[in-house]
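Example S7 (structure tokens).
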């Protein structure tokens, strides 16, 4: 029997960050996936997670775990597939270090991902974005910071990890205001900024102070802003904005929705999906196609460009009731003769 703890530690602390050079966010996501898996296995085998053995994490257990997170934890198929991807990566790591688990790894690799529904994305209109940006109080340091974060998240279409990971050195105000973004998959991009966004960032810099952290946005304790911290700030301001604009009640507004709003704003202004992909830092246009499905402007243009076929007009004449009765009587008589 093989203890799983040493291999799990090597996978998360050496293989992912050093050999594959994945981002800290990916390491955190994989670590959380294995936390859920090992806790599930420990409950099933009535032992401690640190006492689990590799042979116990077989294909039936993984299938039961995936069923558990969907039915009992209420995770979506997309989240289920993300957890399965982490498990697949771990067993690919083991194949070259522990040949005895090749058959076990092959069975786990055979577990397929689940197809997911491609739903229309949620995004905010320009009016809804403006109402949200007007909520933070510009007379307090916290309000100035919140307004700058919301403005930058929308204007640059940043992911949460990109927003909270932004450093002071990544902001350039002269000669052309821009930010340098360390994106997903180690893809870097430089984005110009509106003057309104620059004004909001300058206001935050004036009250930020000299903290020991190099991150641009700090929390109330002077430490780097976290993902959950920004999500809390956004939810707080969305609740107030909903009172001013009732249409926001029907939308589940997350940090990703601000990124979607930026993408739709660029698409409607340029009508070029390639520019949207460039702005958001997508590696493939397939990731950007979802915004085309949600954009009704392009569909209306396509509808107006074509000529509909003519439909011959006619008048509906209901059948005569007496003739219908006679015809049905004739049918009944034929069946009776047979």
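Recovered sequence:
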């Amino acid at each position: 029997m093989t203890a799983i703890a040493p291999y799990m530690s090597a996978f998360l602390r050496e293989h992912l960050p050093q050999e594959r050079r994945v981002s800290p966010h990916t390491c955190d996501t994989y670590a959380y996936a294995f936390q859920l898996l090992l806790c599930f296995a420990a409950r099933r085998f009535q032992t401690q997670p640190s006492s689990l053995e590799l042979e116990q994490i077989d294909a039936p257990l993984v299938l039961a775990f995936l069923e558990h997170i969907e039915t009992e934890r209420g995770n979506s198929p997309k989240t289920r597939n993300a957890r399965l991807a982490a498990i697949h990566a771990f067993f690919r790591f083991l194949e070259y270090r522990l040949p005895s688990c090749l058959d076990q790894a092959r069975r786990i690799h055979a577990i397929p991902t689940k197809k997911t529904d491609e739903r229309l994305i949620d995004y905010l209109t320009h009016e809804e974005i403006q109402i949200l940006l007007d909520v933070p109080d510009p007379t307090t340091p916290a309000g100035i910071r919140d307004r700058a974060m919301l403005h930058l998240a929308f204007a640059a279409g940043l992911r949460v990890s990109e927003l909270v990971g932004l450093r002071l050195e990544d902001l350039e105000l002269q000669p052309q205001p821009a930010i340098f973004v360390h994106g997903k998959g180690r893809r870097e991009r430089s984005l110009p900024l509106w003057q309104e966004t620059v004004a909001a960032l300058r206001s935050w810099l004036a009250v930020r102070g000299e903290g020991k952290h190099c991150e641009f946005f700090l929390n109330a304790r002077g430490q780097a802003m976290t993902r959950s911290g920004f999500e809390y700030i956004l939810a707080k301001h969305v609740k107030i904005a909903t009172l001013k604009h009732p249409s926001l009640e029907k939308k589940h507004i997350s940090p990703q929705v601000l990124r979607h709003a930026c993408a739709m704003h660029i698409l409607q202004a340029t009508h070029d999906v390639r520019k949207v992909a460039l702005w958001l830092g997508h590696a493939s246009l397939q990731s950007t196609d979802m915004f085309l499905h949600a954009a009704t402007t392009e569909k209306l243009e396509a509808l107006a460009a074509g000529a509909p076929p003519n439909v011959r007009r006619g008048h509906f004449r209901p059948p005569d009731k007496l003739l219908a009765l006679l015809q049905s009587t004739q049918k009944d008589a034929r069946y009776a003769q047979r």
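Notes on this example. The mean pLDDT is 85.
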